[in-house]
Design goal:
The chain is an all-alpha fold. It is 79% helix and 0% strand. The radius of gyration is 19 Å and the shape is globular. The chain crosses the membrane at residues 73-96, 103-121, 133-152, 164-184, 190-212, 224-247, 253-274.
Length: 301
Amino acid sequence: MSPAIALLAALVGAAGISTGTVLQQRAGQEIDEPGSTRELLARVLRRRRWWLGQAVIATGFGSYAYALHIGPIALVQPVLVTGLVFGTIASAALAGRRLDRRLLGTSVVCVVGLAAFLAIAHPQAPAVMPIPAVTPLVVVGLLAGGVGLLGLRGDGWSEPLRAALLALATGGFYGLTATLFATALAASNLVAAVISWPFAAALVTSLCGWVFSQRALHLGRLNAPVNAVIGTTDPAVAVTLGVLVLGEWVRTSPLALVGQVVAAAVVVAGTVAITRQSAALLDTARAGSGSASGDRAPAWG
């Protein structure tokens, strides 16, 4: 199957997942501060906007799963970084605002950096899938779970710090989930994939990531900061596991490695810039809304 098709499917998946996440975040921020994570989940599950977001995410995930089935994870997963760009666009659209030119320009830089990374790394799947190495999977799962628990139990810690820890855990679990799904989808048929242990493990890790993401999205008052952490951690974990666990190949010559590092730095810088510019726009929107309608929060992010 052509890598171009896998790339297109991954882009559609990134757009669906990020847009649905924005919808869910808005649903979560419309409720009062809950006393526990269980109470938060119970409240958001009663909101129609949250279910609309879940439907959009499910559609995006279907396209993403197809991309994982036909392409290497080292190609597919980094494309999800574009979800930050799609999420920013969705936030502006839902708020009825035009995109800031600087924000749009930064988004273009982020996409160019991603394209350069993929062109230089030139990821390829192995001719024969090796037996997955379990140890790296377990290590990543334990680390992500520990970081997530710190974010949940960090009473007295600042909301940005807890949101960052929860976003790190979410990205770790999502990268792990992608690796497990890619392993399961390498089976000879759909039935064999569904009854395999990687598929069962992926359901568990995806649930863990989902729970942590809901809390992170509630604590993060704008989708960009949370998605910036998730969007960089997820592909970093997935590409690493793709090489260590799935035997995938990327260029490792000194010149290629330098190019990959530079391109990745451009992507990271782009995500940070998008985060800061979005936060500045949010502050401006809040100030304008406050002067026009008291303390009511604006419809942004």
